[in-house]
């Protein structure tokens, strides 16, 4: 792949000139933070996306993939992070889906296909139950079905997107053994991950992406976790927000032995305990998908915890709904403003009371909304938090992302909260809005509120936090005063490597958060 | 009631857009007429004259519009609340049954009687909407499936009741007529419009104020626009669904009543349900043309009424075949509804 650029339709620049080459019989680890462009690059290679600029050469000849079928024809296939199996179909049906000559109104002939799939299983050592429905298989087995499905189509370049994120350690070992075997047969593998240990274990060569560019390329034998971490996290030039040190007060939020299940029922947050105090920013760093979303949802009343306690200002709140929490002084800046925190087709005034619609100050008799007061309040928000909008009656969709977030943050801060839970508060924003919102968070901390900041942006965590914890696989793999960590250390911890050498899957080191 | 600050201007734009679309729809209809040798100009002139040309015609157009502005509400309020409620038809049948029972069999003093019959119809319609609502809330049953099934159940239940328990002695084809005390006053002798239209318009306006002027309405619209943001805002999803269904059921029930106690000459339900059947489904089209807005639905219903009533003059004055009249009306409606349908489809596929 040469000089690949990709600009999405909404203007997001995902790739800014990436070169990548891949030899026969080679495993390449593609490493990078969320949003570095790994998945976009591989979607281009597998024909799912078309590059804005740049070319792809296969054995010296330029190719133009219009769809994944084109890529498959030259032997490039991808296994996605979210599986694409048909849940009620059997393993065999899923593997041969779309590959059999269709017979109108009759089920496809599977006899010959079964033999070929069985031969493939024997050859690769990947065994799956062919007659069980996919929905009854564990995740690791489903993944094998996905891989077999891709190989069945004659793939010689296998792309795996975060293949280990849902697997148990044993399943990961199996996967790695299989990939080694695949390499021996002369096939190539691209392995997308953000876990340092894994990429070192399996790859021949490691390519690091950051911000849509290649920031490093090393062979595995010369790579060290420290070097990779540095290449991965890099440094961004956002003006720093000053944060005067001051003593933290009483604990506002107390979390004890919290367990929260993810969407699939597997534990996402495991036995977590920490405090957030008045007048401090407690920052939780970590690569996304390590339980942060579930943690925040549990703290903000959007997800019921499985066990443990959440105490806000002395009251147990684990079973309260969001409105009750707001009444008790919670402000919530959700991870995805357009998804959780705003209604895009509603206007600015309507959005200014979203989550405050039950407050008596915005109501008159019979549950009617007091539009005059709402509009006045919306105007205060717009002026007070420098929201640029065509008007109070303009839809929020017509605002830029930065101004949408200013409105949302303003709304949450104007609740005069005792606790602000902010997740990725500046993601995707322009620099001016980023700095402004960070200043606001520091401002409310200085006024004595407790701030829980969850972010995948390392700079943000380091810049704003008084105390830092790094979350990995549902636990804190490290926690302490902000000054105790170097950014490289945090980078290593984010990749699952502790200072003492660490393991890929965290041993039960439930790190105490108290300093 | 304090007028929300957004009442005036934001309504103007969709109105202008829809008027432009009507012209476009008329042009499309004209293109359909030309190859068959009809004169579009003559046809439309008679359509207009038939719908609005004389006072009785105008009133008759409004009489056609009355049930439709009501049956539009279950769908339009449903869409605002994130539901695809197509149960207006069945809820309307039950409303007609409720109105017939109280108006025809229960002697009450004047004044009270009319109100009681109206209330009974709304109650019956709401009750019929309650089951799909609860199925959705408790069991996650999709409302499209349940409301279609309930439409059929309502059809046969209503037919059964009309034939076996509510029939007028000696006249098998219809139920007992509404007693005189339970009839909405007629405007003039040469149209079928009654004061029921005031109740219908009032309900549409109340629903509008409810959706845009109250906390509960805000929460319903939020749940429809962005369910996750609604959760974030602490909206009880089940409550929003329940209210959405009940409003729709009441409106559909009232629509049924409007044809029994608010429409001469029958003042009763035909045993075939012939004087109410399809009004509920037509409401879906009315809602779409009215951009799923309660007040837009009133205007769209008048347009539907004009097409229905004026179309007759188009037939015998301009000589346009009745099939052609229906095709043209259909084309105009589809053209008008297309933007809203497109919006709904896009919203669905975006999820």
Would you kindly provide a written description of the structure presented here, covering whatever features stand out?
The complex is a heterodimer of chains A (515) and B (351). With 515 residues, chain A is of the alpha/beta class. In chain A, the strands form five sheets. Chain A has a six-stranded mixed beta sheet, with helices on both faces. Chain A has a six-stranded mixed beta sheet with strand order 16-19-20-13-21-22, sandwiched between helices. Chain B is an all-alpha fold. Chain B has a single domain, classed as ABC transporter involved in vitamin B12 uptake, BtuC, CATH 1.10.3470. Chain B is 73% helix and 2% strand. Chain B is built from 13 helices and two strands; from the N terminus they run ααααααββααααααα. In chain B, strand 1 and strand 2 form a beta hairpin. The longest helix of chain B has 29 residues. The two termini of chain B are 37 Å apart. Chains A and B meet through helix 10, helix 11, strand 17, strand 18 and helix 13 of A and helix 8 and helix 9 of B.
The best one-word shape of chain A is globular
**What sort of overall outline of chain B do the alpha carbons produce when their principal axes are compared?**
globular
How many beta-strand segments of chain B? 2
* SS class of chain A: alpha/beta
Q: What is the CA–CA distance across the termini of chain B?
A: 37 Å
Give, in spatial order, the strands making up the sheet with the most strands of chain B: 1-2
Q: Which chain pair has the greatest contact? A: A-B, 36 and 22 residues
Please name the defining characteristics of this protein.
heterodimer; A: 515 residues; alpha/beta; six-stranded mixed beta sheet; 17 helices; disordered C terminus; B: 351 residues; mainly alpha; ABC transporter involved in vitamin B12 uptake, BtuC; 2 strands; 2% strand; disordered N terminus
């Amino acid at each position: 792949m040469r000089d690949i650029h990709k600009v999405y339709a909404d203007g997001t620049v995902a790739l800014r000139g990436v070169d990548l080459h891949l030899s026969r019989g080679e495993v390449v680890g593609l490493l990078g933070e969320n949003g570095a462009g790994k998945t976009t690059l591989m979607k281009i290679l597998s024909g799912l996306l078309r590059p804005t600029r740049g070319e792809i050469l296969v054995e010296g000849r330029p190719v133009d993939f219009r769809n994944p079928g084109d890529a498959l024809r030259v032997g490039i296939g991808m296994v996605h992070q979210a599986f694409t199996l048909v849940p009620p179909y059997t393993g065999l049906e899923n593997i041969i889906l779309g590959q059999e000559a269709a017979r109108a109104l009759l089920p496809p002939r599977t006899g010959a296909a079964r033999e070929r799939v069985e031969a493939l299983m024997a050859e690769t050592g990947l065994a799956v139950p062919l007659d069980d429905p996919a929905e009854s298989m564990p995740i690791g087995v489903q993944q094998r079905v996905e891989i077999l499905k891709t190989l069945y189509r004659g793939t010689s370049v296998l792309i795996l997107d975060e293949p280990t994120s849902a697997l148990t350690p044993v399943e990961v070992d199996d996967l790695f053994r299989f990939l080694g075997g695949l390499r021996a047969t002369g096939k190539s593998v691209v392995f997308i991950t953000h876990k340092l240990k894994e990429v070192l274990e399996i790859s021949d060569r490691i390519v690091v992406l950051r911000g849509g560019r290649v920031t490093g390329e090393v062979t595995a034998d010369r790579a060290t976790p420290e070097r990779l971490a540095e290449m991965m996290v890099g440094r961004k030039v956002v003006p720093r927000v000053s944060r005067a040190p001051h003593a933290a007060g009483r604990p506002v939020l107390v979390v004890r032995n919290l367990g929260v299940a993810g969407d699939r029922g597997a534990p996402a947050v495991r036995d977590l305990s920490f405090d957030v105090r008045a007048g401090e920013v407690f920052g939780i760093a970590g690569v996304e998908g390590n339980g942060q979303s579930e943690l925040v949802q549990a703290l903000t009343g959007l997800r019921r915890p499985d066990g443990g306690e959440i105490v806000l200002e002395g009251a147990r709140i684990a079973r309260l709904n969001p409105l009750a929490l707001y009444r008790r002084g919670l402000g919530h800046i959700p991870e995805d403003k357009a998804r959780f925190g705003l209604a895009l087709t509603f206007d600015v005034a309507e959005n200014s009371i979203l989550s405050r619609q039950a407050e008596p100050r915005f109501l008159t008799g019979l549950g009617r909304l007091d539009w005059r007061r709402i509009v006045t309040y919306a105007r205060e928000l717009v002026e007070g938090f420098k929201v640029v909008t065509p008007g109070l009656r303009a839809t929020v969709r017509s605002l830029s992302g930065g101004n949408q977030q200013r409105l949302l943050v303003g709304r949450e801060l104007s609740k005069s909260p005792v606790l602000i839970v902010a997740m990725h508060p500046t993601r995707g924003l322009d620099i001016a809005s980023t700095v402004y919102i960070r200043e606001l968070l520091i401002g409310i901390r200085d006024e004595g509120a407790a701030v829980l900041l969850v972010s995948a942006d390392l700079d943000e965590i380091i810049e704003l936090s008084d105390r830092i914890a790094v979350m990995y696989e549902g636990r804190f793999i490290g926690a302490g005063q902000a000054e105790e960590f170097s950014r490289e250390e945090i980078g290593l911890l984010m990749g699952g490597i502790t200072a003492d050498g660490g393991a890929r899957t965290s041993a039960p080191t439930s790190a105490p958060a108290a300093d | 009631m304090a007028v929300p600050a957004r009442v005036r201007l934001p309504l103007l734009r969709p109105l202008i857009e829809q008027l432009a679309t009507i012209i476009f729809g008329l042009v499309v209809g004209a293109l359909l007429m030309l190859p068959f040798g009809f004169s579009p100009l003559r046809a439309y002139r008679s359509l207009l004259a038939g719908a609005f040309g004389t006072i009785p015609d105008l009133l008759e157009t409004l009489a056609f519009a009355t049930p439709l502005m009501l049956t539009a509400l279950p769908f339009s309020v449903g869409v605002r609340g994130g539901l695809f409620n197509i149960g207006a038809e069945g809820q309307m049948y039950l409303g007609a049954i409720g109105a017939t029972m109280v108006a025809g069999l229960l002697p009450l003093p004047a004044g009270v009687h009319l109100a009681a019959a109206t209330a009974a119809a709304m109650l019956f319609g709401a009750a019929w909407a309650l089951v799909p609502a609860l199925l959705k809330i408790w069991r996650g049953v999709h409302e499209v499936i349940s409301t279609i099934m309930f439409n059929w159940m309502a059809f046969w239940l209503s037919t059964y009741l009309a034939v076996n328990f509510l029939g007028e002695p000696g006249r098998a084809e219809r139920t007992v007529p509404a007693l005189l005390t339970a009839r909405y006053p007629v405007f003039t002798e040469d149209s079928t419009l009654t004061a029921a239209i005031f109740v219908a318009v009032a309900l549409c306006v109340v629903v509008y104020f409810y959706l845009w002027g109250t906390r509960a309405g805000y929460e319903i619209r939020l749940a429809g626009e962005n369910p996750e943001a609604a959760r974030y805002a602490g909206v009880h999803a089940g409550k929003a669904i329940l209210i959405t269904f009940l409003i729709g059921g009441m409106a559909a029930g009232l629509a049924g009543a409007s044809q029994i106690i608010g429409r001469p000459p029958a003042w009763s339900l035909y045993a075939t349900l012939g004087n109410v059947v399809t009004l509920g489904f037509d409401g879906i089209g009315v809602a779409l043309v009215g951009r799923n807005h309660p007040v837009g639905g009133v205007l769209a219903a008048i347009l539907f009424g004009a097409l229905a009533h004026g179309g007759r003059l188009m037939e015998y004055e301009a000589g346009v075949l009745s099939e052609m009249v229906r095709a043209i009306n259909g084309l105009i409606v589809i053209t008008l509804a297309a933007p809203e349908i497109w919006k709904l489809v896009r919203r669905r596929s975006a999820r």
